[in-house]
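Posting this for the archive.
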Amino acid sequence: MRGFETAKILKEQGITLEDVAEEIAYRKETGALSNQPKNEVFMNMTLNEVLRIKEMWNV
């Protein structure tokens, strides 16, 4: 449920699914670590956690 809960919180903060997808692409292309996100709202989240948020976005 963590991905669902996080997705809900991010939606409330105005984050969109496009923002999530952009962060995933950025990390895959650059190999950025969780302390080097493109969007600081994803600070300290692993790539797997961001992927889980994307999966749970519309649940």
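Helices lie at 2-12, 17-30, 47-56. The chain has a mean pLDDT of 94.
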